[in-house]
Amino acid sequence: MNAAALVAAGQPLVVSSFPEWRTAARDLLMHDIAPELVTWNEAGTHAVDLFSGAPAADPSADNVPAGPAPAPPAPAQSPRIPRAFMDMLQSAACCRVPDRWAFLYRVIWRWQHGEHDVQSPADVDGVKLAAMVKAVRREEHDMHAYIRFRERPVDAGPPRFAAWFEPRHDVLPQVAEHFVKRMGGVTWMIGTPEASVMWDGATLHHTGPLMSSAADLDDAGEALWLTYYRSIFNPARVNAQLMQSHIPSRFWKNLPEGAIVPAMVSNAELGARSTGQAQAVGRKSGFTIPIAPADAQPERQQPSKLDECRRCDLWQHATQAVGGEGPAKAQIMLVGEQPGDQEDLAGKAFIGPAGQLLDRVFASAGLERREIYLTNAVKHFKWEPRGKRRLHKTPAQKEVEACSYWLDKELASVKPRVIVALGATALKAVLGNGNAKLGESIGKAIRHEDRWVVTVYHPSYILRVPDEATKRQAFNVMVEGFKLAQQLLERPPQEPSASSTGPA
């Protein structure tokens, strides 16, 4: 039974989501049913009925036939609501107020009847609508900022990370979409008192509540984080009121440091503020140790997985590290500069516009992508904002050198006989020479250590240049370079030259 028929029969409308409300509201507007004639109930709740305890009326009493329920008015033309206004209503629908469905229908009914000032701050309903939208957007921002993922034990299986949050409004679906874009293929779950979402790396699953509190989560790494937090806490500069204004108290209970902050603030007020340092730090007279700063650096354990790499700062602004892919023992290895925007989001090398042009080069050179190992000199996407876009920014030499750790591991594992370097950055990384010039080696074969190196243009160069003749020339250089790489495979192995590099 549709919404208009239910209203005509005196039945309340029970909805649990914005799509259900939108379907019912469209039917009511088509039948021009006024808001005061409709009773809206939230799914899982029941409206208070003053006559719920009274017995039902008997249609046969006094021999009066019950008769059919009155029919709703004839439907009119389907309503046309602006997309921006409907998006505003959808956002407001996430606000947990007792009468949200009835209020939203009153707003949309007024709009349909020509009262377009219903969304104005000067209108009484417009004020409430704007406040609901603002509250929802604020809750989305707070959930982005204060949700804390905990890493689960490896033997527990997926998801790898889990988090608990107690939102004031129904913002979990849109917040989940935000983390889908930011966390790539890493599996995770967010639990709330009302519902949960789980990302398996490919699909987002919505379920009922799976956790009861943050106590259901256990992260062995939190002990290290709390130790670090205590060490950077400065009691001489603590401002409890400022801390509460920056992070509302309702978020502290679900943050790991929330368990130790009250004691540290209390100790500061009891006298630790006067010393300005932790008790473990004593005032000791010292002396200068005659040793070079480089020798004083501790021996650091190298990362075992690319996702754990912190050798430079690029990981802080990238979605994920993008490793190489291809045959484990490929004879030809292609080395580019760095992953692009699409590669950063998907976690795969050369899938964007440059990768599509590269496929055309392979086809013209008689190669197939699956025969080549594809990787980049730098594994994280370096970019700068330009409006809402992320534009490529060339890596610095220190970032190329930091990432040479991973390129060397790939070379040692794959053992290619020929390397094709795309552009200047890749050439410098492969040769280990920051002064290598692209113009001196383009299209040529160079003997480096125990393998050949062929340098060609990067596909992005062809995509950038406006001149068609230059595009064709650069494309042909790439095709000939890959043909040369195949010819070099047929040459017998040579001993590395004394200078380690030189033209063939």
TrEMBL record:
NCBIfam families given in the database record: SAM_7_link_chp, UDG_fam4, UDG_fam_dom
Organism this protein belongs to: Massilia jejuensis
Entries under CDD domains matching the protein: UDG-F4_TTUDGA_SPO1dp_like
Keyword presence, Iron: yes
Pfam families per the UniProt record, alphabetical: DUF4130, UDG
Protein name, entry field: Type-4 uracil-DNA glycosylase
Positions of the Uracil-DNA glycosylase-like domain: 323-479
Keyword tags: 4Fe-4S, DNA damage, DNA repair, Hydrolase, Iron, Iron-sulfur, Metal-binding
Family: Belongs to the uracil-DNA glycosylase (UDG) superfamily. Type 4 (UDGa) family.
InterPro entries xrefs: DNA_repair_put, DUF4130, UDG_Type-4/5, Ura-DNA_glyco_family4, Uracil-DNA_glycosylase-like, Uracil-DNA_glycosylase-like_sf
Coiled-coil annotated residue ranges, if any: none
The organism's place on the tree of life at top rank: Bacteria
The keyword Hydrolase appears for this protein: yes
Biased composition (Pro residues): 67-76
Ranges for region Disordered: 51-78
Record SUPFAM superfamilies: Uracil-DNA glycosylase-like
